[in-house]
């Protein structure tokens, strides 16, 4: 057996102290090591403008991409070859054991006896959950009631038995075909409870085999902590597949990163969503990478310090992006293309920080050109984008163009009305715009001339009271019938009514 890796502290200089946020692992953290040529980060470059935050889920607002549940199989992003070594190796349990983007294929085994494995499996005692003390800074995040643990953390005997059978079957296949060690069985058993399958373990093995060296107790302690700060159990599979290194980070490292988010003003209810959206954030050193990113947003970009927490919530990827090049390129483009003042661009980034992820050539420019093509002047486009930067994330063919055609053909409005009511472009054509317009027409309450776009802004209840003068139930019944008829026309299916 190879000798254990040397402690990382021997390879690194001591870090600078920061009294404002004490680091539990300060003795082991330090400046970037020049000798480290590996990257733990997932590629966070988003080239398409239809990648959006998971923040808004209201059906009346349009998004460019359906919010489907995660597929059973994941597409794995290639590592960014241009990334520098920003990895916080001090948080690894075995910092000297790094994967090297494993170029070799998994070694298939000709065949192995598994009878002894099965016997030892059946003799295993039920696993117990480790307990640990909570730091004062994140007491509120980590506190969990016995009732909650009983409801979500423990499974009944029947389900546990089924999980054991499933994980045993998975491990037997992995051991027969690949170089999987018997010692990995308890860890794989535990990870199977989050829905990981054979293909997921193979992919993790190819990308980061070292994580299987973590014992089951340590892995459970770390993942239980993530669950306690708001990560949903259904998201854990995606996190583990995207960032398997998370199993190697010590509990103190995880807590320190969570404390960093809290220090930015991120509410406890949003911590889990940020981790799920950007799990690679744990691999960045807080002092050497994350804090400088925040300082750049404040000092160079010009985002107000009080808005930083909101920006991180809207786009967690901003923490792990090369923010300097992303900001400079988009600032120069908008300044030249629209003559946009810096104040306007800062407002755009504050409201919709995903702007920094969008491709200029494939995302931003085509939407600006579309607005020009329908008769908008650059000054009007700047007003619309400053007010509703989300327009840059909407699909041209499935969203912007249909809404424009409905605006001029059905609502009898001109393009200049969008300057006054840019929110029109963010509303759902099927769920809000068309139903409200058709409802007022059916009641003969639609005003003559251009249809008022302001009628699309209020809630359904206020719309019924202020514009339709009827009950909310009547409007909802009308809209439901209209949606069903539209569905029938698209699919060719017959809609059965209660009278049939």
UniProtKB/TrEMBL annotation:
<feature type="compositionally biased region" description="Low complexity">
    <location>
        <begin position="9"/>
        <end position="20"/>
    </location>
</feature>
<protein>
    <submittedName>
        <fullName>Uncharacterized protein</fullName>
    </submittedName>
</protein>
<feature type="region of interest" description="Disordered">
    <location>
        <begin position="1"/>
        <end position="20"/>
    </location>
</feature>
<feature type="compositionally biased region" description="Acidic residues">
    <location>
        <begin position="63"/>
        <end position="90"/>
    </location>
</feature>
<dbReference type="GO" id="GO:0003676">
    <property type="term" value="F:nucleic acid binding"/>
</dbReference>
<dbReference type="Pfam" id="PF02536">
    <property type="entry name" value="mTERF"/>
</dbReference>
<dbReference type="GO" id="GO:0032502">
    <property type="term" value="P:developmental process"/>
</dbReference>
<dbReference type="InterPro" id="IPR003690">
    <property type="entry name" value="MTERF"/>
</dbReference>
<feature type="region of interest" description="Disordered">
    <location>
        <begin position="46"/>
        <end position="134"/>
    </location>
</feature>
<feature type="compositionally biased region" description="Basic residues">
    <location>
        <begin position="48"/>
        <end position="58"/>
    </location>
</feature>
<feature type="compositionally biased region" description="Basic and acidic residues">
    <location>
        <begin position="124"/>
        <end position="134"/>
    </location>
</feature>
